[in-house]
Amino acid sequence: MAGLVVVLGLTGCGTVQQAYKPDHLGNLSDDEMDSGIRITLSPDKYRARIGDPVTFKLVIQNVGTEPVWLPGDPELLLTWVYPDGRRDNLIRGDKPLSDSVAVLLKPGQQRIEHSVVTTYYFDRSGIHEFRAILTAHAGQGQSWAGRAISNGFGVFFEAN
Predict the structure, then answer these.
(1) Sheet containing 110-117: which strands, arranged edge to edge?
(2) Confidence of residue 92 (pLDDT cuts 50, 70, 90)
């Protein structure tokens, strides 16, 4: 009998995890710092029509107590989740940070970068959740190496 109870307990109903669908308009305030580096994302608008470009301001800040060398060419990835749960991304390619020259960020100091997302291919109205990921790999001298994830930010898009 005890064996039957164990078998029934192990073969219980499984749950299928649903795709994450954004439902929050505005700042999610859920960033993940790494080694004193914080990245904060904010769009130039909270609402837009599908097809309108959206410009994001990316603030990279040293929130630690020690100066940090930020490499000039870290990967800056902008990701988003569509209202139906699909995901997409854009690797910023218009210019590398600091023209590939490492920059010293003292405590409290920040760099501001911008990234533009064209939305003509967005196919659904609703909240799209954006996030930036800053990554730098070891082997770039004394520069910061890590992965900082920005806050999420929900922007509402409506069809034309």
Answers:
(1) 37-43, 54-62, 110-117
(2) low
Query: What pLDDT is attached to residue 71?
Result: 82
- Cβ atoms 64, 117 nearer than 8 A: no
The pLDDT value recorded for residue 48 is: 96
SS (H, E, C) the chain: CHHHHHHHHHCCCCCCCCCCCCCCCEECCCCECECCEEEEEEECCCEEECCCCEEEEEEEEECCCCCEEECCCCEEEEEEECCCCCEEEEECCCCCHHHHCCEEECCCCEEEEEEEECCCCCCCCEEEEEEEEEEECCCCCCCCCEEEECCCEEEEEECC
Closest CA relative to residue 126, chosen from 24, 51, 19: 24
Interstrand relation of 153-158 and 54-62 (parallel, antiparallel or unpaired): unpaired
Instruction: Give the whole-angstrom CA distance, residue 61 versus residue 66.
Output: 12
Given a contact cutoff of 8 angstroms between Cβ atoms, the answer to whether 37 and 61 are in contact is yes
- For residues 76 and 63, what is the distance between their CA atoms, to the nearest angstrom? 19
